């Protein structure tokens, strides 16, 4: 994983201007282009999570841990509620959470459909609840909660990693050379990667 302490990229690039076929001569140009949104930085979600684990702020780590704990507590609550109320359909909440967790990952090939499903789950929840189907509404809520928690945690880690990449050229060079990030021209849609 790229370290913030590295002073030189493993490839020997001393600056972004030395990267072959890179669209910028220096790091300040890159930062300015990202600031005006003509370019954007894409990050590997796993690399962002690893970076976040080690370098993210305490408050963001706490929020991410709380989101994970929320999902765990919700899963346990569904099992307990199913056993206490004898509404055994609630046992389906845990597998639903697992499927939603897997599909909600930002790098999922079904990302657009899952995003649409996450948004629609709110309307479906209220429809089922208002039509007297509280167990079905609860199961939909579990999928929606999992979707929201995974996306929120992913957004926190990815945005913090992007911010770190734009604040430290050596970290950017290390991540770029290792395939942990890419650069995308938002007008032409061209993606630059090592």
Care to describe what's here?
This protein is 63% helix and 6% strand. By secondary structure, it is mostly helical. It has one domain (16-186). A 3-stranded antiparallel sheet has the order 1-2-3. The longest helix is centred in the C-terminal third of the chain and has 34 residues, at 134-167. It is elongated and about 65 Å long. The chain starts with 26 loop residues before the first helix and ends with a strand.
In total, how many beta strands? Answer: 3
Rg estimate, integer Å: 21 Å
Distance between the termini: 15 Å
Per the principal axes of the C-alpha atoms, what is the gross shape?
A: elongated
Helix content: 55-70%
The largest pleated sheet is described as: 3 strands, antiparallel
Stretches where pLDDT is under 50 for at least 5 consecutive residues are: 1-9
Provide the number of structural domains. Answer: 1
Structural classification:
mainly alpha
**Overall pLDDT level:** 88
Main β-sheet, spatial strand arrangement: 1-2-3
Order of helices and strands: HEHHHHHHEE
Task: Looking at this protein, list some descriptive labels.
single chain; 194 residues; mainly alpha; 3-stranded antiparallel β-sheet; 3 strands; 63% helix; disordered N terminus
